[in-house]
Design a protein that fits this description.
By secondary structure, chain A is an alpha/beta fold. Chain A has one domain: 3-Layer(aba) Sandwich (Rossmann fold). Helix content of chain A is 26%, strand content 31%. In chain A, strand 6, helix 2 and strand 7 form a beta-alpha-beta unit. In chain A, helix 2 packs across helix 5 and helix 3 packs across helix 4. The radius of gyration of chain A is 22 Å and the shape is globular. Chain B has 322 residues and is α/β, with parallel strands linked by helices. Chain B has two domains: 167 residues, Rossmann fold, CATH 3.40.50.620; 118 residues, 3-Layer(aba) Sandwich (Rossmann fold), CATH 3.40.50.1220. In chain B, the strands form four sheets. Chain B has a seven-stranded parallel β-sheet with strand order 7-11-6-1-4-5-12, with helices on both faces. Chain B has a five-stranded parallel β-sheet with strand order 15-14-16-17-18. In chain B, helix 3 crosses helix 4 and helix 5 packs parallel to helix 8. In chain B, 58% of the residues are buried. Classes of the chains: A alpha/beta (261), B alpha/beta (322). The interface between A and B is large, with 86 and 93 residues.
C-alpha cells in the first residue's frame, strides 16, 4: 500500500504577526508543520505500524519547507518530495489542490491524506478539491482510520450531528481532524535515520504545470487587504459572593442586555 | 443578481444557518433559489419562501437523510445549472466544509471559505474572513460566478412573508464509494448548537463529570445547547460534537455563557459572533474576560448551581427584584 501525506509549512500561529501595507511582515516569522497535517501524518504512520505500507510526504514552497519534510522523515515517513518553486507561494486552496493533484495522479497512491485545514488560512478547501480533481471519494475530518479489508477503509469522522462511521473504498482522499490524537515525536534513531532517506526535488514542469497555474497567479480568489480585526470590548467584571453575583447576572441578561425573557 | 442557497436540514427541518444565508441574499437584494435536499424535507418549502426564497429545488428521498458527498455534490451542480445563479452560498459547517470545495473544483469556480462578511460590488464578490488563528482579517475578492461559505451569525434571517415555487429534482445516480454506515448519537435531546439562542459552554476547569453535570443542568433550565472547549472535549468531559472553536463549530447565539474556559483564540474564534458573552472563571486575568460583556470572577462549582437556581426561580415567574 502507498500513502501520500501532504504537509503544509505554516506561520507559527501562536506568535504575533505584524501587518504592513496589507501584508504580513515576514521578518521574524517562524514556521512550523501545519498541526492538522501532522495529525494526518500520524494517522498514516499508524497504518504503517500495522501494515506493509510506504508513506510518501509532499510539501511545496522554498527551501525552508525541507524542515517540514525532514521532521516527517524523522517521524517515520519513507521518502519525501519537495515541489521546489517560489511560484507556488501565496495561492488559494484551488491552486494548492491543482499542484497536489498534478503530483498524485497516476502514481498509484491508495490514500491521499492531509489535515482538514491549514492553521494559517483555516480554509479547509484543498482536500475535497484534490479528491474532485483526481475523481476520488473523500472522507473529511476523520478521527480514526483502519483498513477493514483489502482496498477498504473504515473511518470515524466528526459531522454536524455527531460522529459518523464511514466506509470508503481506496483510492480515496482523507482529511484528518486535529482531534485524531497526538502525533508522535521524532526519536533520536528516527532523526539519524532520516538523513539516509531520499528527498526528491520536483519542479512545476516535471508535473506538467505552468507558473501561472499555481500560487497567487493560479488563484481564483485574491486577498486584497489585511488588517487587525476589531476586537470586542470587555464589559463589566464582578468579583464577590456567589448568590449576589448570580442575581446580578440574571438581572443583567433580563433587564440590560434584554436577551432573556 | 441570482444566488443559490444550499439548505441544511435536521430531522426534516431547515437549520437556522440556511435562513441566515437567505438573510444574506435579502440584504444584497438578490433573487434566491434554494437546494433543499434531505429526507422528509418537502414541507419546508413554505418556511424558505417566508424567508425570501423565490424558488426551491427539492430532492426529498430517504437516501438523502444523511449527508454524503457524492449525491449532494451532484444535486448542487444540477440546481446551479437550473437556477442561473452567479453565487452559491453554503453555511460554514462540517457539511459546507466537505461539500463547497468539492463543488468548486467540479465547476472550476472560485471558492471563498468561512466568510464573516460578504457583499457583491461591481460584479465582484468581496468577502471578509479571518486567518492566522483570528489574528488577521482578510478582504478577499473573486469574480462571479463564485462559491462562498459563510459563518454562523454573519447575517440575520429575515421573515419577508413571501412564497416560493418548487421544482423536484431527479435523484442523482452516483457511484457511492464512501458510505456512512451509522451516526453515533452523542448529542442529547437538547437543541442543536447551531440553532440555539443560548449556549452554555464548559472548559477544562469543569474537571470531571460532576462539573460537566453543572453545565448541563444550567443549559437545561435555560433550554440552551451545551458547548465546550477543545481541552474539555479531549479530556472526555463533553462529546466532540459539542466543541466550539477553530476546529469545532462556529456559533453565534444571543447569549454565550463560557464557564471555566480560559478563552484561547482557538476557542473564541468559534464564538466571538455571539450577541452577549458571559464568562465565569476563577482567574481574573483569563483572556476570556477581555471579550466578555459580563464577567464573573468566581469558582464555577459555587456560582453555577446558584445561577441554575436563580434561572429556575425566574422561569417559575418569581422574577428577580428590579
Amino acid at each position: 500500500m502507498k500513502i501520500l501525506v501532504c504537509l503544509k509549512q505554516v506561520i507559527d500561529v501562536e506568535l504575533n504577526v505584524q501587518l504592513r501595507d496589507g501584508r504580513i511582515v515576514e521578518e521574524g516569522l517562524q514556521y512550523a508543520m501545519n498541526a492538522y497535517d501532522e495529525s494526518a501524518l500520524e494517522a498514516a504512520l499508524q497504518l504503517k505500524d500495522k501494515l506493509d505500507c510506504e508513506v510518501v510526504v509532499l510539501s511545496m514552497g522554498p527551501d525552508r519547507v525541507t524542515d517540514v519534510l525532514k521532521k516527517a522523515l524523522a517521524m517515520g515517513a519513507d521518502r519525501a518530495v519537495h515541489l521546489d518553486d517560489p511560484a507556488v507561494l501565496g495561492g488559494d486552496s484551488g491552486a494548492a489542490a491543482r499542484a497536489i493533484a498534478a503530483y498524485a495522479k497516476d502514481k498509484g497512491f491508495d490514500l491521499v491524506m492531509m489535515g482538514r485545514q491549514a492553521q494559517d488560512t483555516d480554509a479547509a478547501g484543498a482536500g475535497p478539491m484534490v479528491a474532485e480533481l483526481l475523481g476520488l471519494p473523500q472522507v473529511t475530518n476523520i478521527i480514526s482510520l483502519e483498513q477493514e479489508s483489502e482496498g477498504k477503509f473504515l473511518t470515524r469522522r466528526v459531522g454536524d450531528d455527531g460522529r459518523e462511521v464511514v466506509e470508503v473504498s481506496a483510492p480515496a482522499v482523507i482529511t484528518v481532524s486535529n482531534d485524531y490524537g497526538e502525533a508522535r515525536l521524532p526519536t533520536m534513531k528516527g532523526i539519524l535515520g532520516a538523513k539516509k532517506k531520499p528527498v526528491d526535488v520536483v519542479t512545476l514542469s516535471d508535473l506538467g504545470l505552468e507558473a501561472s497555474q499555481v500560487g497567487a497567479a493560479g488563484s481564483q480568489t485574491q486577498v486584497v487587504g489585511r488588517e487587525k480585526p476589531a476586537g470586542r470590548a470587555a464589559g463589566r467584571k464582578l468579583t464577590g459572593e456567589g448568590p449576589d453575583l448570580a442575581k446580578q447576572l440574571v438581572e443583567y441578561l433580563v433587564n440590560d442586555a434584554r436577551v432573556l425573557a | 443578481m441570482k444566488v443559490l442557497v444550499i439548505a441544511e436540514t435536521k430531522q426534516g427541518k431547515v437549520k437556522k444557518g440556511t435562513l441566515e444565508l437567505l438573510g444574506a441574499a435579502q440584504s444584497w437584494g438578490a433573487e434566491a433559489s434554494v437546494l433543499l435536499a434531505g429526507a422528509g424535507v418537502a414541507g419546508e418549502v413554505d418556511t424558505l419562501g417566508r424567508h425570501g426564497a423565490s424558488k426551491v429545488f427539492v430532492a426529498d428521498d430517504a437516501s438523502l437523510g444523511m449527508y454524503v458527498t457524492a449525491p449532494f455534490a451532484a444535486l448542487v451542480v444540477e440546481a446551479y445549472k437550473a437556477s442561473g445563479a452567479e453565487l452559491i452560498l453554503f453555511a460554514d459547517t462540517e457539511m459546507g466544509k466537505d461539500l463547497a470545495p468539492r463543488v468548486a473544483a467540479k465547476l472550476s469556480l472560485p471558492f471563498v471559505p468561512g466568510a464573516v462578511g460578504a457583499s457583491v460590488e461591481g460584479g465582484k464578490l468581496v468577502a471578509k474572513r479571518t486567518s492566522i488563528a483570528g489574528k488577521v482579517m482578510e478582504t478577499v475578492e473573486a469574480s462571479l460566478p463564485a462559491i462562498i461559505s459563510i459563518k454562523a451569525g454573519t447575517f440575520e434571517p429575515k421573515e419577508v412573508g413571501g412564497s416560493a415555487t418548487s421544482e423536484t429534482l431527479a435523484l442523482p445516480q452516483t457511484d457511492l464509494r464512501a458510505i456512512v454506515r451509522e451516526v453515533l448519537k452523542e448529542t442529547s435531546e437538547r437543541v442543536d448548537l447551531g440553532d440555539a439562542r443560548i449556549v452554555v459552554a464548559g472548559g477544562r476547569s469543569v474537571r470531571g463529570p460532576e462539573g460537566a453535570k453543572l453545565i448541563e443542568d444550567l443549559a437545561d433550565v435555560l433550554g440552551a445547547a451545551v458547548g465546550a472547549s477543545r481541552a474539555a472535549c479531549d479530556s472526555g468531559f463533553f462529546p466532540h460534537s459539542c466543541q466550539v472553536g477553530q476546529t469545532g463549530r462556529t456559533v453565534a447565539p444571543d447569549v454565550y455563557i463560557a464557564i471555566g474556559i480560559s478563552g484561547a483564540i482557538q476557542h473564541t474564534a468559534g464564538m466571538t459572533g455571539s450577541k452577549v458573552i458571559v464568562a465565569i472563571n476563577t482567574d481574573p486575568d483569563a483572556p476570556i474576560f477581555s471579550i466578555a460583556d459580563f464577567g464573573i470572577v468566581a469558582d464555577l462549582f459555587t456560582v453555577v448551581p446558584l445561577l441554575t437556581e436563580e434561572f429556575k426561580r425566574l422561569k417559575a415567574g418569581n422574577t428577580v427584584a428590579v
